[in-house]
Write a structure and sequence with these properties.
Layout lengths: L6 H19 L6 H8 L3 H7 L3 H21 L7 H22 L2 H8 L7 H24 L4 H25 L2 H18 L6
Organism: Thalassospira lohafexi
Protein name: HTH tetR-type domain-containing protein
InterPro entries: Homeodomain-like_sf, HTH_TetR, Tet_transcr_reg_TetR-rel_C_sf, YxaF_TetR_C
Length: 198
C-alpha cells in the first residue's frame, strides 16, 4: 500500500521538484506541468500550493537554502579551522560534476528571474545563501587569527572565483576548469591557515 503524503510533504516534494526543474531547464522554461511530473503529483496540487510562478521560484530557492546552509554547520564541527576548510573544499569537489553540466542552481535562478519586485524575496534568499558561504569561510579564517577585513575579502574572492569557474566550466563543458580552480583555491586557503597544501 502506498503511504499517503501529508500536505507539508507534498509541498516539500513540489518545492524540490521546482528546484530540480528550474536548475535543469531554467526559470522561463519551467512549467507547472513539468514540476508536477517531476514530483509525481497532479498539476492541480502545484497551483494550489504555488498560485503564481514566482511562488515556485521562491520555494525552489528556499529548498536550496534549506539544504546547503545547514550543511555548513555539519562540517567537522569539533575540528580545527584547517580541517573544516579542507572538508568544505571536498564538498566543492563533490559538487563539481553537476555544476559542470547544469551550472550553479542558486546563481542560475538569480540570473534567470525577472527584475520586478515580485521576486525580491527570492533574490534576498539567494543573496543570503552566498552571504552564509562567505561568512562561514571568513569565520573559519578569523578563528585562526586572520583579521576580519582580510578574512572577508579573501572569502568573497574564493566564492567569486569558484562561481566564475562554474560559469566557464559549464559554458565550455570542461570539468578541468573547475577542478583546477578549486585546487588553487584550496591551496590559497591552506596557505592562509598556515597548513601545507595536500
Amino acid at each position: 500500500m502506498v503511504e499517503k503524503l501529508t500536505s507539508a510533504q507534498k509541498r516539500q516534494k513540489l518545492a524540490r521538484a521546482a528546484m530540480n526543474v528550474i536548475w535543469r531547464d531554467g526559470y522561463h522554461a519551467a512549467t507547472i506541468q513539468t514540476v508536477a511530473k517531476e514530483a509525481g503529483l497532479p498539476a492541480g496540487g502545484v497551483f494550489y500550493r504555488f498560485p503564481k510562478k514566482h511562488d515556485l521560484a521562491q520555494a525552489a530557492m528556499e529548498t536550496m537554502e534549506g539544504e546547503f546552509t545547514p550543511l555548513l554547520a555539519t562540517i567537522a564541527p569539533g575540528g580545527t579551522a584547517q580541517k573544516r576548510v579542507s572538508v568544505f573544499f571536498d564538498y566543492l569537489d563533490a559538487m563539481t560534476p553537476r555544476r559542470v553540466v547544469l551550472g550553479c542552481p542558486v546563481a542560475k535562478l538569480m540570473l534567470d528571474i525577472p527584475a520586478d519586485d515580485g521576486f525580491d524575496a527570492t533574490r534576498k534568499t539567494g543573496q543570503a545563501i552566498f552571504t552564509s558561504l562567505i561568512n562561514w569561510l571568513a569565520d573559519n579564517f578569523t578563528q585562526d587569527g586572520i583579521s576580519d577585513d582580510t578574512a572577508q575579502k579573501t572569502s568573497r574572492r574564493i566564492i567569486l572565483r569558484w562561481q566564475g569557474a562554474i560559469v566557464l566550466a559549464h559554458a565550455m563543458n570542461d570539468r578541468t576548469i573547475l577542478d583546477d580552480e578549486i585546487a588553487d583555491l584550496r591551496q590559497t586557503a591552506e596557505r592562509m591557515l598556515g597548513s601545507e597544501p595536500n
